[in-house]
Each structure stands twice: as C-alpha cells, then as structure tokens.
Amino acid sequence: MVDSNLNKEHLVTVVSEDRETPCWGCGLRHLHPPNAPVFKCSWCGAITDKYESKCEHKNYWWRHMRDRCFVCVLIGFILFVICGGVWAVYPVIFSISFFCGIFHLTITGILSITTVLLFTLTALRSAGTPPLIEWGSNPAVGKKQLENYTFCRYCSKPKSPRTHHCHTCGICVLDMDHHCPFIGNCVGAANHQHFIAFLISVLVSAMYVTIISAYAALHIWPPLTYRYLDHFRAGDRSLAWRALQDVAIALASSAVLLSTRGLVLVYLFVSSISLEIGISVLLWQQLCYIYEGQTYLSSLSMRGGDEAGEKDCKNLFRFFGCPYPVLRFLPNFWNSPKRHEK
C-alpha cells in the first residue's frame, strides 16, 4: 500500500519537459498534456501548435504564371467583345437609324469603361491585409489581445480569426473569400465590393451583347427557305416535328452564306449567353454568402462545426456601404425576434 501511494504521488507531481511550451503570442510558458499539442493561452488568447514549423511556398512561380495567363485571356476576350461588337454591330445599327446608332454607341462606351475599370480595381487592388498587432512579448501584449489568433507558419506573423493564407499570392488575406485566377488576385475585404460590382457589370454587358447581336443578325441574315412550314401554318399538326427540322435545316444552310460580320455576330450571341449562365450562378452564390454574413472559405469551415452567421438582408446593405441610419428603418422580415406575451 505504501509503494502504491508513493507511485501515485510521483505521477502527480513530476512534470515532463515536453509538456511545457511557450506561447508565441505573449511568450508565457504553459503546461499541457503531451497528447494535446494545440493549446490556447489563458492570458492573451492565442492558439499555439507546438509541432508547427515554418513552411516554404512550392510551385509559386507556376501559379503566378498561370494566373497571368488567365488574366491575359480575359483581357483579350473583353477587348474582342468590345472591338468585334462595334465592328460587327454598329454598321448595321447606323444603317437603320443614325440616332439609334449614337444611342447604342453611348451605352456600349459606358458599359465598356465600367467593366474595364472594375476589372482593373479588382485585379490590381490589394485584397486586404490583416491588422498589425504587437506580439511575442508579455508586457506589450494585453489580456485577450490575441483572442483566437493563430500563427501563420508561411508568413511568420499572427493571423486573425477572419484571415486566411493564400498559397498562390503568398500572403495572408483578411476576410478572404477565394482566389480567382481570372483576375490574378484574391477576393478579400478590400476588393470584394469591386468583385461583385464587376460581376454585375459583366452580366449586364453580356445581356446587352445578346440583345444587340441578335437584333443586328436578324437584319443581315440570308432569307430562309422552308418546305413544310407552310403546311404547319395551315393547321396540319402531324408535320410539327418536320417543321422544326425544316427550320433547323434552313438556319444551317443559310448560315453557310453568312459574311464574316454575320459569323462574328453569331459567336457574340452564343458566347454572351454562355457567359450569362456562368456569371449568374457565380453572382447568386456570392450574394447568398453575403446574405448569410459569411464568405466562401468561412462556409467551408462552418461545416466543421463553427457557428453560422446571422442571415439578414441588412448584411447586403452593409456590404455595399449603406449607412447605419438607413439600416435602422429597414424591416427585418427573416430574423425578427420572437415576442412572448405574458
């Protein structure tokens, strides 16, 4: 019995060296079990991983070149749509009416300048850097000053809870949503508004290109030759399928006779519709995340057990910079608090 008590006392009082680890945030040393390498500092609130080591970026040059290629392709496509659309559409529009041509040329200039400007702001502006904060020394770090901060092993500096490290850009980004290769930049706190505005501008421009290219193509399209469509109009419904085939064959045979201008109009029409579908899905996804008060990366971390943000239309108004006095008068239909009558 005496030996067992001595053994128990020995197990309680003796502490191994590997259980004592300094906090990277304030420098205080903490004791923790050997099977729990990750611990949270009781003073500054920083989270420390004692097995965390400095890492280096790999394939950074390849990712950088890939993004530059995507940016060049996107710039080339934008310039082709602008220049090719003006070359193919506006001779037809001006032949119909001079006033109509001036009107649509003005709209084209406004949409083109807006889209290129928003693309430039989104691609060249910094996505958002985390706030600078004192760390590493106990006198300089106050209580709970680094609450839930982690240490970025790539940048060798503190990383706030809303900050993520981008392996392509090689920096930590505040409120990072995702890295977009088509703009060659991350989407974060500093350029997220410009990214959403760019998507809206592209969607509106694509819809305008669809309408104006279809309108111009109808005026220069060669005449169609039908075989069964007259019978279908006379009321013979048994020839409906043949009539549809006849229309498709007539369009295909007349497309062979199209000029270069007509082929460019057809390409603009098809590509603009494809672009509208892709941009609409991306824009709807982004607006849903903003409505839920989160980003794409935060939604992924939320699946791991984190709490969800508050879903409210006011999140959309705050995101687009609507002032607080206006938000106070907006009704909250989705998350109105429940009232209990006594």
UniProtKB/TrEMBL annotation:
UniProt xrefs under PROSITE patterns: DHHC
Family according to the record: Belongs to the DHHC palmitoyltransferase family.
First-level EC class: transferase
Name of this protein: S-acyltransferase
Domain (Palmitoyltransferase DHHC) ranges: 148-296
Note on domains (UniProt): The DHHC domain is required for palmitoyltransferase activity.
Native organism: Populus euphratica (Euphrates poplar)
Keywords: Acyltransferase, Membrane, Transferase, Transmembrane, Transmembrane helix
Catalytic activity: L-cysteinyl-[protein] + hexadecanoyl-CoA = S-hexadecanoyl-L-cysteinyl-[protein] + CoA
